[in-house]
Write a structure and sequence with these properties.
heterodimer, A: 330 residues, mainly alpha, 72% helix, B: 303 residues, two-stranded antiparallel sheet, 12 helices, 4 strands
Chain lengths: 330, 303
């Protein structure tokens, strides 16, 4: 029964993702983008969840790994014949090589993971607000470097001509991989040790858990997943600027996580899908094609109001921070 | 080196002016944090609402315009407490912070919707712009607003210090900031203390709105957003647990921004944010409880 219960906790979020993926093939090209957005959001929010949810430490920095992953995957997949033209200032090693779609996603994950490990090494000593602000500083530094350093990327201009390989299949599989990795991590020895530090850091330390080391593990796994999600994102959009992977994405994805319920994987998946779904619905409603017709500009007001309302009414999120379970199956 | 030569009296005067405004914002954020343990990210939107009020009442007499600004901001601040902060009391800091993101997001969207009625984004607050004129004192251009900012900041902080030290409500606020649970057991009324702190922080936001609008009369939905983020960083770097260290942190980051902007030529400052935020990380690693927190308060959690 126990095994069955834990299987349900993985199977239900996965089934929901597959349903969204299949759903995207039934709608028009113009509407497909909303489904793909939702799936890529799931990958990003699950990546953030791996660190924030399991450790209980707030981080504003995970989107910097999304950004790095997106630009790594994007720069390395632009076809060689156009690369020298659009990005002449790149380091030769970046300029003269191009890799395939799958390899670029692996590269994005590797770059995100390595960077997260390096950054986390000193930063994971911090807790509370100091950790929040320090990780925010990481976001600012990443954004600043990506925006100004034209040897590694497009700088302040748009990175375009990236192959749009994230369709329904890649988005679904990508989101499933993120969920699978997060699930495996949180049920592993390392994940459980970290969750012990979240519940009571002093007690965990008392039985010999190194809080720093466990947080660093989670930060690195989270960074790798975030980089991977960034790769999915850039291949979905085909072109990207540094502003798209900065403050707004940080706030929106964190809000998705907290609205869903920050301390469970089910919460991360449900929050990402619910907020994306609501957002898409409101976009349609503004255009007057959905059931109700909203004045333009009201979408963001309603989105903010509904997110605030959910948090006020249910501070532990839609899922209450619990994994999905069926009554009697625990 | 010419960098040192560029650090003249002019730069210092402007930097002190900026630091004073940031310090006022830091007090507003710190007061609410003291009693609610809530980092109010939507504080910048209070300032933004005040700036819009000034812009929309630009045809009124200056005093009436400023009074309207205070009325709107204080009312919005109290409303925010009643509708958002009160139900969230005692929740985890992450939930409270993210909720204020959502509120900030919503207020910006409302401002955009009101603003865009004339088909352009942004309004210009013309009536109080004359305070931005400069008078030359000993070769240094001192704008009236710089003097006003410094005087207002010093007077406000002095009044606040008196209030906290000498009045009953001030004592209650300090008690609540130290240990809310025990303070309530000893008869401190939570709603009254929190309401008063929110009221004061609203007054401060309105003051900041006036001071900022004079210097940057072009008001858009993201007015004061960047400033709020910088001040929040400054407050935590200074030490958010104490009002004075938080204020000092706000002043320090404003002063530093002013000096660096004045000294560095624009083409050399593209990587400046990286350097500043690397410094922020360094300070947080060395002194996680805050740069200005000493003694027992400095013994912060570090794993």
């Amino acid at each position: 029964m126990r095994r069955l219960g834990s299987l349900v906790a993985l199977a239900v979020p996965a089934a929901l993702i597959v349903a969204v993926g299949i759903g995207s093939t039934f709608v028009s090209r113009a509407n497909e983008i909303y489904f793909l957005d939702a799936l890529v959001s799931v990958a990003i929010v699950v990546a953030i969840y791996v660190f924030v949810g399991n450790s209980g430490v707030l981080s504003f920095g995970q989107v910097s790994f999304v950004a790095v992953g997106a630009f790594a995957a994007g720069v390395m997949t632009i076809p060689l014949e156009s690369k020298t033209g659009v990005l002449p200032e790149l380091f030769p090693v970046l300029r003269d090589h191009t890799i395939g779609n799958a390899a670029s996603l692996l590269l994005a994950a590797a770059v995100g993971g390595v960077l997260a490990f390096i950054v986390g090494l000193p930063l994971m000593r911090l807790s509370g607000l100091a950790a929040g602000i320090a990780t925010f500083a990481v976001l600012e530094i990443t954004h600043n470097l990506l925006r100004e350093w034209t040897r590694i990327g497009p700088g302040a201009t748009t990175l375009s001509l990236v192959p749009e390989t994230t369709g329904a299949i890649q988005a679904t599989i990508g989101a499933l991989i993120a969920v699978g990795v997060a699930f495996a991590y949180q049920r592993s020895r390392l994940g459980r040790l970290l969750r012990a530090t979240r519940e009571d850091a002093a007690a965990a330390r008392g039985v010999g858990v190194s809080v720093h080391r466990q947080r660093l593990w989670a930060f690195t796994v989270s960074g790798a997943l975030a980089g991977f999600a960034g790769g999915l994102l850039v291949h979905e959009l085909g072109s990207i600027t540094t502003e798209q992977v900065y403050l707004e994405l940080t706030f929106l994805t964190l809000a998705m996580l907290v609205v869903g319920g920050a301390s469970s994987l089910w919460g991360a998946v449900l929050g990402a899908l619910a907020v994306s779904g609501l957002n898409s619905f409101l976009i349609k409603a503004e255009d007057g094609v959905a059931a109700l017709d909203l004045p333009s500009g009201s979408r963001l007001i309603l989105l903010g109001a509904i997110m605030a309302l959910v948090l006020i009414r249910r501070p532990s999120g839609l899922t209450g921070g619990r994994e999905f379970s069926l009554p009697g199956l625990r | 080196m010419n960098l040192v030569a560029a650090l003249d009296a002019q730069t210092l005067v402007d930097a002190v002016g900026l630091g004073a405004v940031y310090a006022l914002m830091a007090v507003g954020i710190g007061l609410v944090f003291g009693v609610l343990r809530l980092v109010n990210f939507a504080y910048g939107q209070l300032v933004m609402a005040g700036a819009y009020t000034l812009a929309f009442t630009a045809s009124w007499p200056v005093a009436a315009s400023i009074a309207a600004c205070f009325a709107v901001v204080v009312a919005l601040s109290m409303l925010m407490d009643r509708v958002v902060f009160r139900p969230l009391r005692g929740q985890s800091p992450a939930v409270m912070l993210v909720t204020t993101f959502a509120v900030a997001f919503m207020l910006q969207a409302i401002a955009l919707m009101i603003d865009i009625r004339d088909d352009t984004i942004g309004e210009i607050a013309t009536s109080i712009a004359s305070f931005n004129q400069a008078t030359t004192v000993a070769g240094v251009d001192v704008r009236k607003i710089t003097i006003a900012a410094v005087v207002v900041a010093v007077v406000t902080l002095a009044l606040l210090a008196l209030l906290l030290a000498r009045t009953t409500i001030g004592l209650h606020m300090r008690a609540a900031a130290a240990d809310f649970g025990t303070a309530r057991l000893l008869g401190v009324r939570a709603n009254r203390v929190i309401g008063f702190a929110v009221f004061l922080s609203g007054l401060l936001a309105a003051t900041v709105a006036v001071l900022l609008t004079v210097q940057f009369p072009f008001v858009g939905p993201d007015f004061a957003l960047r400033e709020t983020i910088v001040v929040l960083v400054g407050v935590v770097v200074g030490g958010i647990d104490r009002l004075w260290t938080a204020t000092l942190g706000g002043f320090a980051i404003g002063f530093a921004t002013g000096v660096i902007n004045g000294v560095l030529p624009t083409d050399k400052s593209v990587f400046l944010p990286s350097a500043v935020f690397a410094l922020v990380i360094l300070v947080l690693l060395l002194r996680p409880a805050g740069l200005f927190a000493w003694g027992r308060a400095a013994a912060a959690e570090r794993v």
